[in-house]
Amino acid sequence: MGQRVAGQLAVSTTVRRMRTTVLLLALVSLLAACGGGSGSSADTVESTTTERAQEAIPLVAEALGADVVRASRQWQSCMAISWRHEAFATLSAPPGGDTLTQLDDVRSALTGAGYDDATQVDDRVTVTRDETTVDVQPTPARGEGTWTVTVRSECADYDGDDLERVENDEGGPLDGV
Fold it and tell me: Looking at residue 23, what is its pLDDT?
């Protein structure tokens, strides 16, 4: 009986240690993925994201035959440990279009402009270029023919003046789309 209890305790202790190790490895991986970033300054990241948005949003609008209703940009927190710059646009396309065809048209326009297809979900298009991601999806809850475009940088850590800037950013309109 004593050996069985000792064996169960040994297994229990080993399992706890393995769980702790797995949790620590997962946490380290998560921090590396979210906090790595490009090492670029906030100015550089914002400029690159803005330029990509000014390129991608009109391409999407043209592919959909849509008008840009609203476009803005802002720094966003990534799980409260790092930051990314994002640009958002709401587009209004003629109602009644075939969504699958429209998604294919959007994908073709963006990959034709040098973006790599990274789509993993059927009801949207996701493309990347360097450290920027463009995500396009229909948003019928906002009205028939409504689409959203999000252009975002990777998450990165900032300090000093850059950290103060990203933490205090109030966002604003995205010009040039």
Answer: 56
